[in-house]
Amino acid sequence: MAELTAHETTRLDELRANHPVLTELGARFSDAGHEIALVGGPVRDALLGRAVTDLDFTTSASPEQIEAIVEGWADTTWDVGRAFGTIGVRKGAEMLEITTYRADEYDPESRKPVVAFGTNLSDDLARRDFTVNAMAVRLPDLEFVDVHGGLDDLADRTLRTPIGPDVSFGDDPLRMMRAARFVGQLGFLCAPDVTEAMVAMADRIEIVSAERVRDELNKLLLSDHPVQGLRVLVDTGLAERVLPELPALQLERDEHHRHKDVYEHSLTVLEQAIELEHRLDERPDLTIRLAALLHDIGKPRTRRFTGDGQVTFHHHDVVGAKLARKRMRALRYPNEITDDVSTLVELHLRFHGYGSGEWTDSAVRRYVRDAGPLLERLHILTRADSTTRNQRKALRLQRTYDDLETRIAQLEAQEELQSIRPDLDGNRIMEVLGIGPGREVGEAYRFLLDLRMDRGPLPEDQAIEALRAWWAAR
User: Fold this and answer.
1) How many domains does the chain have?
2) Same domain, 451 and 391
3) Which residues form a coiled coil (predicted)?
4) Which of 28, 50, 154, 301 has its CA at a distance of 20 to 30 angstroms from the CA of residue 366?
5) Per-residue pLDDT tens for 56-113?
6) What number of H helices and E strands is found in the chain?
């Protein structure tokens, strides 16, 4: 087994200095005659020089004994994980999870373990997902424990399993999704036997709940390099089970190569959208990343070859929006983010009608109105969707979109585009026309809204005159 370098030892010392609870908690458990160790992600991240936030511990103490040991020291405890041996603790700003040594067994038809408590740290570490997460630091003395070669794999940036990958993934298939996530999050590579097991066992992911799959997919998408992790999902066949629309983008190229590789294009759009996230207040942004990844998923359904050998994808924006909504519902995404992503997918081609600036002010207003609060994300998606290698064409598209954004800003200076309302509200419409609530009021409202889009804000007397003329003609 590899020895800690002086630099790595320093990082563990810094970890203890930055988190005094490690020393305090270690002393309390030691005084009570129990072992406790920091384990998993916090140890890995500390050795990598990454920020450590949540602290996970494993101990010889039972849940009841854990509660007794932290009583009077912890600010708050919670036991929602008691059935799995976990007690949550808050001490100041620190959030801790302390779990009794585990030696679980798994039902082959379910990823839920038959909970069994273990008796020692080594057995507990053997049930971890990857060797880089199976390192521990015994407290309070900061004794480093690495029985599965995690330190070597950390140096090699390699994902291996403490036990055979077929056994590990058979026990918990979600670990295959987690492997892809760590590729994107940490920049690691899967060991060959890990990849082979993922290919052979990809169908096992189907026993995992949609919510758990979604959560892992989100973590991957929000990582620093999600494209590399997504490639793992596609190459191993996992994506075919959890996000089949992604591998479906690998369309067979026509012999004259008259259309782009839609799969590679989509991954590039995702990368370019991430580069533009600085335009948003909060980042990383799950909505724009999902929209960028899924924006062209309507193309396989709409691909047609014309008589002259050209390829078309008519209405792939509308079809793609429906497919995005269907997939996101299957993965149990919240309604709000589902609506936002499908709207962006449906609008992502709208800009191409702008030409070289031919849109009227009315068309610009409609663009803003239809995007609503998603306007900034639509700007990002539209700009990211340019992946042409023709520099002149790319520059032309960029300058044209710059022009559109300038026009939007100018119109916004004249009026609040994103909250456009007709010049008369429903009550005033009923008063002017002498009608009560009903379908006609809605029709009149839409007429006035279109009028506002076409001509901008009008004085009340002109709006009333136009409304009466419309009503008479009707």
Assistant:
1) 3
2) no
3) 394-421
4) 301
5) 999 999 999 999 999 999 999 999 889 889 999 999 999 999 999 987 666 666 556 6
6) 23, 13
On whether both 45 and 145 belong to a single domain, the answer is: yes
Run of H or E residues at 61 = none
- Flag whether 175 is in a domain: no
What's the gap between Cα 37 and its chain centre? Answer: 31
Reduced 3-state DSSP string for 83-133: HHCEEEEEECCEEEEEEECECCEECCCCCCEECCECCCHHHHHHCCCCHHH
Q: Which burial class, exposed, middle or buried, applies to 356 when counting CB atoms under 10 A from its CB (0-12, 13-18, 19+)?
A: exposed
| Domain assignment of residue 113, given as a range | 1-154
Residue 441, CA distances (Å) to 123, 139, 422, 433 in order: 72, 72, 12, 9
Rounded distance between C-alpha atoms, residue 340 and residue 292, angstroms: 12
Asked if residue 124 and residue 3 are part of one domain, the reply reads yes
**Structure token pair of residue 366:** 């409609």
Which of 300, 303, 304, 338 lies closest to 321 in space, CA to CA?
A: 338
Rounded-to-integer distance, Cα 68 and Cα 90, Å: 15
Start-to-end CA distance of the chain, whole Å, equals 86
Q: Which two tokens stand for residue 420?
A: 């456009």
- Which one has a higher pLDDT value, 361 or 104? 361
Q: What's the longest Cα–Cα distance across the chain?
A: 91
To which H or E segment does residue 214 belong? helix 210-221
Cα of 128 vs its chain's centroid, Å: 24
CB 382 within 8 A of CB 348: yes
Q: Are residues 110 and 74 in the same domain?
A: yes
- Tell me the whole-structure pTM to 2 decimals: 0.83
